[in-house]
Amino acid sequence: MADWKFPRQHRRGPYIATLCGLKPGLIIEHDGGPYTERLEREAVKRAYLVEQAYGVIGFWNAEVNRVPTEVWQGIYVALTDM
Q1: SS3 letters for 42-80?
Q2: Among candidates 1, 22, 2, which has minimal Cα distance to 10?
Q3: Beta pairing partners, 21
Q4: Reduced to 3 states, what is the DSSP secondary structure of residue 31?
Q5: Does the structure show a pLDDT above 90 at 49?
Q6: What is the Cα–Cα distance from 28 to 71, expressed in whole angstroms?
Q7: Given a cut of 80, is residue 65 above it in pLDDT?
Q8: Which residue in 16, 43, 45, 70 is deepest, having the highest Cβ count within 10 Å?
Q9: Distances in Å between the alpha carbon of 23 and those of 36, 61, 66, 77, 81?
Q10: DSSP annotation of 37
C-alpha cells in the first residue's frame, strides 16, 4: 500500500503481530474468529502494543473475505490519520 511496508509475523515484545508497519507505527491484526479465550488474550496483546505507541487495527477472516474493499479502506484511513 503506497510506500508503507508491513512485514508479516513481526515480533513486538512477547507478541507476534500479524502485519507490523514499522514506519507508520500501525499493526494490522487478522484473526480467525471471536472465541472467548482468544478475545481475552487479544485484548491483553492489544493493550501492550498500544502502550508501546502502536496503533492497532483488526479484522476477522470473514471481513477480509466478504468485504475486502472495506478492509483496505479501513487500513488506508488508519494510515492517513497517523
Answers
A1: HHHHHHHHHHCCCEEEEEEHHHHHHCHHHHHHHHHHHHH
A2: 22
A3: 26
A4: strand
A5: yes
A6: 10
A7: yes
A8: 45
A9: 32, 25, 29, 16, 14
A10: H
**How far apart are the C-alpha atoms of 40 and 8, rounded to whole Å?**
23
Instruction: Kindly state the average pLDDT of the residues 66-80.
Output: 92
Q: Quick count: other Cβ atoms within 10 Å of Cβ 22?
A: 14
Q: Are 60 and 34 in contact (CB under 8 A)?
A: yes
Tracing cell 487500513 back to the chain, one arrives at 75
Sign of CA pseudo-dihedral 32, 37, 39, 41? negative
Which residue, 59, 30, 62, 56, is CA-closest to 44? 56
Phi, psi for 80 (deg, rounded to 5): -80, -15
